[in-house]
Amino acid sequence: MPIWKKPLSLAAIQQSGANTAISHLGIEITEVGDDFLRGRVPVDHRTKQPFGLLHGGVSVVLAETLGSMGANYASPEGHRVVGLDINANHIRAATSGWVTGTARAVHVGRTTQVWQIDMVNDAGELTCVSRITMAVLAPR
């Protein structure tokens, strides 16, 4: 059973990232499931740190993008979501290809949501695990 409370389509999500940090970094939303969102970021000149590895902050941007979008669509119509806290554990470096993140809700409550985002490289190896806590704001 889907957890989404607002109309959701892959095209709408992709379009919402136009002309934002999401598009600047090359982040693509690739899949919407009943209880998850999946997206990816390229490991290239836009996203690497000076030592040739995917910048850890870019992993956090991917995580926040997926977790925030998930929380938004899992909230009632008219409600907004804003980030309260995010953390990331960097497990393995990525030097090329893509890093793909999958966001799943850990908790969807009336006033808060918690999402976990697991990121893997092209070989399916875990590169980063992140968790974001979102506040759910009622309409004013």
From TrEMBL:
UniProt cross-references to Pfam families, sorted A to Z: 4HBT (PF03061)
Name a single GO cellular component: cytosol
| Sequence ranges assigned to domain Thioesterase in this UniProt record | 51-128
Q: Give a GO molecular function annotation for the protein.
A: 1,4-dihydroxy-2-naphthoyl-CoA thioesterase activity
Q: Which UniProt keywords apply?
A: Hydrolase
Q: Which InterPro entries match?
A: HotDog_dom_sf, PAAI_dom, Thioestr_dom
Q: Which family does it belong to?
A: Belongs to the thioesterase PaaI family.
Q: Matching NCBIfam families, A to Z?
A: unchar_dom_1
Record PANTHER family = 1,4-DIHYDROXY-2-NAPHTHOYL-COA THIOESTERASE 1 (PTHR43240:SF5)
Q: What is this protein called?
A: Uncharacterized protein (TIGR00369 family)
